[in-house]
Every structure is written in structure tokens, then in C-alpha cells.
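FW: tagging you since you asked about this chain on Friday. Here's the raw sequence from the shared folder, copied in full. Didn't touch anything.
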Amino acid sequence: MRRTAGTPMTAVIVDDHPVIVEVLTEILCRRGMFVAGTAGTAKDGLDLCRALSPAVVVVDLHLPDMDGLLLVEEVGRGCPATIPVVVTGDSSPETIEAATRAGAYAVLQKTEELHALADVICEAAAAARKVTLLRPGEAPATPAPAAAARGTAALGGLSGRQRSLLALLAEGLSNKDVARRLGTTEGVVKNYVSRLMADLGAHSRTQLALIAAGWGLCTSEASPAALGVAESLVPPAAPGS
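HL: got it, structure written out here
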């Protein structure tokens, strides 16, 4: 499926809990995304991804017919234009690491605030759009989420949000303090730290901080407004505030 600049960002949701599917569908539609299909099993979810080539597939890890990690791997192998995002109730570091290594763009907790979940899912869809917007006759890039998770990202390839997080890690701040500085939740920060560790081949937060210091990232890089990421990291202001 070829995407153009006017094509809505599409998603498939794979979760066997109808209420969660309904809530995710509603919040993503509010963000202008189109939920092209939903499935309650990994098999049906994979079939949808193969048929529809959505920008992003939202995957629950605990599915009735298959471990969600296996579905993430299958999507990475068979649907290179689709980026998997895991939404789970399991917050263990082992689960987050396993999902990231399987190829998940992000590992989000079902207890996160809805705007935080939507922020990351929309970011994943936007990343898929970037690698599939092709000019006539242009050879397609090779978007491989699983490979990207194992690769080494250069500083110039990092998003403003990733640079912000790295700069704050270089200060020695905890996830809680980083979340406070950027106006987001600790769970979202934890997810991005895990993703950066996978992308940069780091084995600890300390190693990430050393990488940031080596690149010369400083606290001026950590201003969401300066980097144009405030709208995605900071919750919308309440009416009348």
C-alpha cells in the first residue's frame, strides 16, 4: 500500500478486550488516525496487517492464540511498512526489553493516561509515513522495525524528543525527574529510555548518559518548546487555564 501526504495515518488494533479496543479506537480517531481494523487474536491481526498494510499495529502481549511478542516478530518480518506498538499491563523490565528486541517501536502500559498512549502511537504512525512517502520512480526505503531496534542510531537521526531525554539523562536525572521536566508521565519516559538503549546498543542508563555526554548534549537541548515537541510530550492545557 503506497501512502501519500494526504492519506490518513492508519492503525490496526489487536487486543481481545473489547473495552480496550473501543477506548483506543476512540482516542486515535480523535487524533485524526483511521483504525482500519481490529482483531482479538494474533492470527486475525496478522492477516489484517498483511491485507491492509497499516502504518501502525497496536498489540496486546497476552492474546488467546499466540504470544504477542511472536506477532510483533511476524509483523516485522512480513509487513515491513507497519510499525508495531505494544500496549500491555505487564510493566516488568524483562517484558519491555523482550518486546523492544522483538521489534516493538514502543512498549506502553495500559495504565498510562490516554493522551500519553495516543502521543506515542501517533509518533509511530508518523515514523511509518516518513519511510513510505515515495516520489514517482523512487526506490522504497527498507523500514525494518526489528532491525532498527538492533541498530546504532546516529545523533542526527534522533528525534527532538530523544535528544531531550538523552540530555536530561546526561544530567543524571531519574525517570521521575525527567518526566517532571518534560511534563509527561514516568511510564512514557521509561519506555523511551528502553527504546534508546536498544537503538544505541546501550546496556544501562549510565551508558546512555555517557553517550549523551560524548555527543555534547546539554540541558538547553532538553526544552520541549525549543525542540518543537511540547505538543506531543506535554498534556494539553485544561480549558480556561
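FW: The first strand starts at residue 10 and ends at 14.
HL: agreed, and DSSP finds twelve helices and five strands in the chain.
FW: great, closing this out.
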